[in-house]
Amino acid sequence: MLEQLINWFPEWARPFIMPMITIGIVLQVNLGVCSYLILLERKLSAWMQDRIGPNRVGPWGLLQPVADMLKLLLKEDVIPGHVNKFLYVLAPGISVFTTMLAFAVVPFGPVPRNLSATDGQFPYIIAPGVDLGLVFIFAVTSLAVYGIILGGWASNNKYSALGAMRASAQVVSYEIPLGMSVVGLALLTGSMSIEKILLHQADAGIFGWNIWFQPLACVIFFAAAMAEAQRLPFDLSECEQELVGGWHTEYSAMKWGLFFLGEYTHVITISFLTSILFFGGWHFPWIAEPDSQYLGSTLVKVLVLLTKSFAFIIVIQMLRWTIPRFRFDQLMGLAWKVLIPLATLNVVCVMIVKQFHLNEWWLLPMSAGLFLGAGLIGTQSSRPFARRTLEPVPEAHGHHAHAH
Amino acid sequence: MEWNEENGLLLIPLGLGCLAVWWLMPSAKQRPRILGGLAALAAILMMQLMLLPPAGDYVRNVLFFLFAAAAVISAGLMITDRNPVYSALWFALVTLAVCGLFLLNSAPFLSASTIIVYAGAIIVTFLFVIMLAQQSGTATSYDQQPIQPAMATIGAFILLGALLFTLQEWGHIDGKSTNQHAEPGQFIALPEGIQPNPLSQAPQDNPHEIGSLRVLGRSLFGDYLFAVEIAGTVLLIATIGAIAIAPRRSQGTL
User: Fold this and answer.
1) Which residues touch A70 (CB under 8 Å, ≥6 apart)?
2) Minimal Cα–Cα distance from A261 to chain B, Å?
3) Given an 8 Å threshold on Cβ–Cβ distance, is B109 in contact with A132?
4) What is the ipTM score, two decimals?
């Protein structure tokens, strides 16, 4: 059916048809899912705090996202007089554009192994066959900081500027552990392509999922990705108690909504990536194996992947109401003193295993050892550190002497 | 005067571009910007006639002109914009456009890592500093004027001219590209006398491998191992130096 549709178009347009269909589906599903994720987040927080949550619009409050959307669209769109108008309008667009672009290389179903642009197979990915999928995602998400920093600066407001400063320092710092944590996966798989990493795990079965060999990398990846998305334990840049709204203090109506659309799209991308990189993607024993050919197996595979990703979205939303916010120096310390050294040591472990042809299962105790070692160092050094900050250190013998 | 006949054609757009950039530079008295803009446009169009890309399919040509025009025009605007914040943003756009050209020339890893390092980190740091220095949104007066616009422009265009003449010598660009049978990933003809690196060539059985991570890694850590190690050592020393210079306080930072 799809092939007939493609052949109906002129020759030169055929390569564009399938990507357009895929983009349309992804965009629409993403917009719908984002609005209902906000409802889910509100319901979840209400449940965790022993409240009822939104329940007035429709049965069980199910039409609340529609009402929210209408409100955002119909509200007066205020552009304050003291802002830099061009950059002020540009910033939310960059925010949404970059997060949506990152989804281009994330597969959302079983990607066919021999794919061509015009033979009518549904690709289940917007841009199939990108050899450097992981690097592409990091490159695109590293541009997302422009939306934040421009929005904060163009608002011409102290709160916005402080939020933007914090956010840009945070995002630039957390990119490093995020990139380092998946180098181990690339070494184990021999490829940076997300599709190949997924297939490698699916072919190896449930005990070939990367979580068994790289549990530490999974934790580092998840934490760093949350920090990139500015989700709650790391949402220093928009903390309401100190900065009103951070970099989007001056935004209202749909421009504010676009920032949130960007954030939720980022959360969805993180969940998909975590389940694909570490938890086997669409693979699940017995019901979704690479060679399962029964009727509807493709649908089951898509559902398995969506279920896994949904589980991670729930985890992210529950973390928001569980863990208190970090202090800014703790946030930076976590990135530079904990996550980056741990990620580097993890890569060294993978290199050792690959170089000396050890069994890959050695990586599990190695990761656990690194994790326990880091925890032990953390708890042992916290007491002397507390003492050291309380006692005033004489400046004269301090560290300035080293500089000269 | 054979040299003049062959290469003199390049001098006109170079001179025109030089004049345009100097004219557009922010200065004390307002010059009409339209004159500079027209001169710059004329220079770009004349230059474009001489540096045609090899004939490819239409998608490739459209993308090439899109990225190339974006890169050149954003670079000009970056130099000539009054507001340093906009200059930094034009710089980011130049980086992105050049990364698009890298991508067209089968260097996806170079493209992605340039975006991560330059657009994602270095220009963000620039913006950071500029925004800390001037939070009111308008540039202060000492930031608005270049100190030596004429010298800077002439120096930059001499460098550009040297680059273009060298490219012309290599590719024999005499009005058109001589590289009629361009391979994918090839912009101008390979210079004579410089042999292509055997390790960085795509394997015969799989021509799609050109520019892939595998080939790049083999080339970097095979042919250029010494240069890579030297660069790594220099960066390590710079990092240690930065940590040694940074002031420390007893009560933690920030």
Assistant:
1) none
2) 21
3) yes
4) 0.79
Tell me, yes or no, whether A270 lies in a domain: yes
Domain boundaries, chain B: 9-171, 197-254
Smallest Cβ distance to A139: which of B120, B124, B127?
B120
Q: For the domain B9-171, what is the CATH code?
A: 1.20.120.1200
Average pLDDT, 10 consecutive residues per value, chain A (404 residues):
75 78 88 87 88 84 86 84 83 89 86 67 79 87 86 82 82 87 88 86 85 90 87 72 74 84 89 90 82 81 90 89 81 86 92 88 88 85 54 51 45
Least CB-CB distance to B121: which of A165, A172, A332?
A172
A142, A329, A392 ranked by CB distance to B252: nearest:
A329
Does A146 lie at the interface with B, CB-CB under 8 angstroms? yes
Residue B126 neighbours by CB under 8 Å, 6+ apart: B88, B91
Inform me whether the C-beta atom of residue A344 falls under 8 Å from chain B C-beta atoms: no
Place of tokens 């039409």: A63
From A104, A132, A129, A102, select the one nearest A117 (Cα to Cα): A129
User: pLDDT, tens digit, for every residue of B176-231?
Assistant: 444 454 444 344 555 555 555 555 555 555 655 666 777 778 778 877 889 999 99
Length of chain B measured in residues:
254
Determine if the pTM surpasses 0.95. Answer: no
Neighbours of A195 (CB within 10 A): 26
Q: Specify if A360 maps to a domain.
A: no
CA distance A329 to chain B (A): 7
Measured CA to CA in angstroms, residue A243 lies from A157, A165, A169, A234 at distances of 11, 12, 16, 14
**Domains contained in chain A, number:** 1
- The verdict on A45 touching B (C-beta cutoff 8 Å) is no
